[in-house]
Structures are given as structure tokens and as C-alpha cells.
């Protein structure tokens, strides 16, 4: 088992550079270092220190100035709007404190030359343009001025084309409203994020899904967050998770699947379908069968899910092949008493968090975390799957199933590990699970999915 511990009062070693999902089939993203950053014994580095939020300067708007509204994450005023002002041509930027009345631009000198308009879209450079009336029209009426017209009169020369005056302070589109979070920002500096783009196909997955509650006598929390690469390009997330109890109630069954990025239009269908069918097949097993022959039980679950996927694809998606539905998967069967078992195909991860110590259930070879060597569906999945027993639970232990996007961040960043260990130190509801995945880390662009099972027994009431 690989073990790595969170250090108290220390920050992370420098993070690796930017990386995104690779376009080649069988690869999800960038490589992960062979050793964990803290193994080198280095001290704190500025790249892992949470990045402070920059505050915009504010000031009163000038008459004719164009203002840009922005929301800043001020801890005291998380929803306060600040205006960043840019003075329009022909105006002056005011200074000092806000005055009670409106602020107007200084009038030009009588012998000052008329400004010549510059060429632009729909506005060729022509004769000088008359000054725009600085006084607002009564009752919100629209005013216009033309060459030869008296300022403020609304009159215009015969045969001239009216030009309507624009608002004196029109804010640009503001960033979307969001909720405050304590999630860290790892990597310095982090660029500002563009506005997210939604995926338009009707087969797209939600950009955010979260759950939290009792499943049997265990608390289970789960969340899946679309990766930044998908939000930037307007493509669908490709992670999926599912959970259930066995038919006799003796097993908790959970699965995480991650569609291959090389199948951007269809892999999410395979991930969703396989996660559901793995739990459906696992629900027919019993704790007694698992204790007797765990590998046979897990192999049967994988085989039943793949066979059902093939039948459903042939019936409902005849134009697709198994490769179009390719995904990786992790599956766990947890009995009410006794050790559980896990199986995986591909690069999804199963981890245990005991106190502040992280353990990997499946041995890592030190190579790229997200280099996919096997996928589902497969005609004989038992032959390509890995199997591992789970250690006996202790109070407060957490079992974690994760897609490679989250696992790569946990393996590669002490700051992310520390954040997740603190957030998951006690059972989380759906909102808290979603918030736990809201950290920003340089180079982290893939979907993040986690299913967390707390061993501490909880009962309603």
C-alpha cells in the first residue's frame, strides 16, 4: 500500500504545470510525479499557498464614462458589487469622494477643435459629430443630436440622420453570482476563469451532481463536478457514480465510472450506463457469497453489467459500438460486518482515509495515473480487472472511490489532500460534498468525482 500523510502547518511543494485532457484514446490527462511532493523534504513553496483575492479599486462614475461591474469575493461582503471605471472619450475621470449630486464632464473650450469620430463597425469616419446633450431627457425620452442642432434642443438638420445618445454609465456583463467558499487556490498565479459554456446535446450530463445521507447504517456522500476543460469548450462531463443496497440489505454497493475523453460525444453514455448496471448486478449479491469467494462475486458483477450493456446498446443505440461507450470503473462491495472488497478496470482509484493518513487500495506503478490500460465494456471483464480486499473498518475511517481527475489532485498536491481530509473529517450532506470539490489547482482540468463512505454508524434521530 502507498501511504502519505498530511502535514500540519505546512504548505505544498510546487505544483506541476498546466495540463489538460489528452486527445489520444486511452489517455485522460497529464502524468503525476512518482513520489509525493513532501517526500523530498522541501519546505513550503509559494505555488501551494492559497492565492489572495485582488480587490478592485472603486470610484464615482464620470458623466459619459462606461463602467464595468464585477463581483469580488470580499470575505466581509461576498456579494458587494464594485465598479471598475473607464472614462469615455471627451470625459474626465472624477477623483475624491462621492458627491451628492451628479458629476459632469468639464465643458470644452469655445475654440477647441471638434473631435473627429474614428472608424468602427457601422460607423465610418466622416464629418465631425455634434456634441451629445449632457442633460438627461425628461421622463426617460430618447434624445438625439445632429450637426447644426442646438445642444439639448432635440432638433436636427433637414435630411440628416439622427444619432441616439447612449447611457452615460452602462455596466458590462457581470460575472455570475456564486456562493462563497473556503476552498483553496493552489498554484500561483491562477488565471481568471472564462464564463462557463453549457453543453447543448440532450445526452449531456449535469455539470454538478451531489448526494448525502444514510444508506443502511452508513453515511454516504457523493459529488461530481464537470472539469474546467469541459466548461471552457461547452462539452459534456463524462464522470458518473451510483450506489445502492443489495436486495437482502447485507451489502452496500458503490461504483464510479469515467468516460474516455477520446469519445467526447458518447463516452458519458457508457459511464452512466455502466455505473447503474454495476450497482444493479451488485445488488443481487449477498454478504455470505462475498465472504465465500469475493473474486468470483466481483467478476460475476462485472460480467453481468457488460453483458447487459451490450444488449441495451444493440436495442437502443444500434449505431454505436462498445468503443463508443468506453469508460473506466471502480466498484466496492461493503458488508455490514467484516471486510469488503474492491475491483477496478482502468485508472479510477479506491482510497482509504484514516485520520490524516491516506492509503491507496490498488498499488500504483509510479507511472502516469491516467494512462488507461483497460476499459469497459469488455467481453471478459474478469480477466482485465484488478481485485483488492479492504482493511477492517475503524471508527472515523472513510472509504473513497474517485475518478482519475480527483485522484490525480489528491496524489499530486498536499494542499488538496489536507483540504479534503478536513472537509471529510465528518459526514457531509450534498451541499458540503459539492463544496469540497470547488478547490482550484493549476493544471487540474478534468472532471472530479468522489463517493465517500463513512464507517461511523449513524442512525436517524
What keywords describe this structure?
Phosphatase 2c, domain 1; 7-stranded antiparallel beta sheet; globular; 461 residues; 5-stranded antiparallel beta sheet; alpha+beta; single chain
Report on the architecture of this protein:
This protein is α+β, with helices and mostly antiparallel strands. The protein has a domain at 185-454: Phosphatase 2c, domain 1 (4-Layer Sandwich). 17% of the residues lie in helices and 21% in strands. The chain contains 7 helices and 18 strands. It has a 7-stranded antiparallel sheet with strand order 1-14-13-16-18-8-7. Helix 2 (267-282) crosses helix 4 (294-316) and helix 5 packs across helix 6 (414-423). Residues 5-167 have low confidence and may be disordered. Residues 99-119, 148-172 have a biased composition (Low complexity).
Largest sheet: 7 strands, antiparallel
Say which CATH homologous superfamily of the domain at 185-454 is assigned: PPM-type phosphatase domain
Number of helices: 7
Query: What is the topology, as strand order, of the major beta sheet?
Result: 1-14-13-16-18-8-7
How many distinct beta strands? 18
Round the mean pLDDT to the nearest integer and report it: 74
Unreliable residue stretches: 5-167
C-alpha-based Rg, rounded: 29 Å
User: What percentage of amino acids are in beta strands?
Assistant: 15-25%
Main CATH class of the domain at 185-454: Alpha Beta
- Helix proportion of residues, in percent? 10-25%
What is the CATH third-level topology name of the domain at 185-454? Phosphatase 2c, domain 1
Q: Give the H and E element order.
A: EEEEEEEEHEEHHHEEEEEEHHHEE
Give the overall shape, derived from the CA principal axes. globular
What is the oligomer described by this structure?
single chain
Termini separation: 38 Å
- Overall structural class, as computed from helix and strand content, comes to alpha+beta
State the CATH architecture of the domain at 185-454: 4-Layer Sandwich
